[in-house]
Design brief:
There is one protein chain. With 109 residues, the protein is mainly α. It is 63% helix and 7% strand. The chain folds into 2 domains: 77 residues; 32 residues. It has a two-stranded antiparallel ribbon. Helix 1 packs antiparallel against helix 2.
């Protein structure tokens, strides 16, 4: 049984969103507990040992971006080859409120 177009979008958003969450949690838990203080001119800089948290954090943000982009595209993508007019699409109050909140969150990040 083949998956529908809607299921493909939903699975892609869920996959990248879950992957972003998991990598973010792992990156947060793998942080080194402390660094070596290095005194400078009026400041103290900490050198931390090499660890994978930066790479995991960046990959988490990239996966979050993919999840957001796929979700954004899924709103406007033609359903079963039939495009929906944007004027008609945004007459639905629930979708309009959800979309405005989602775009506010994305734009504020």
């Amino acid at each position: 049984m083949a998956l529908s177009q809607t299921a493909h979008f939903a699975l892609a958003v869920a996959f990248f969103g879950s992957l972003a969450f998991i990598m973010g949690v792992i990156a947060e838990n793998k942080k080194p507990p402390f660094g070596t203080p290095v005194p400078g001119k009026g400041v103290i800089i900490c050198n931390y040992p090499s660890d994978p948290t930066i790479a995991l954090g960046i990959l988490s943000v990239v996966c979050l971006f993919f999840s957001t982009a796929i979700g954004f595209v899924s709103v406007f993508y033609p359903y079963e080859g039939k495009p929906i007019e944007k004027k008609v699409l945004f007459q639905n109050t629930t979708l309009l409120v959800f979309f405005v909140i989602a775009m506010a969150i994305v734009c504020s990040s």
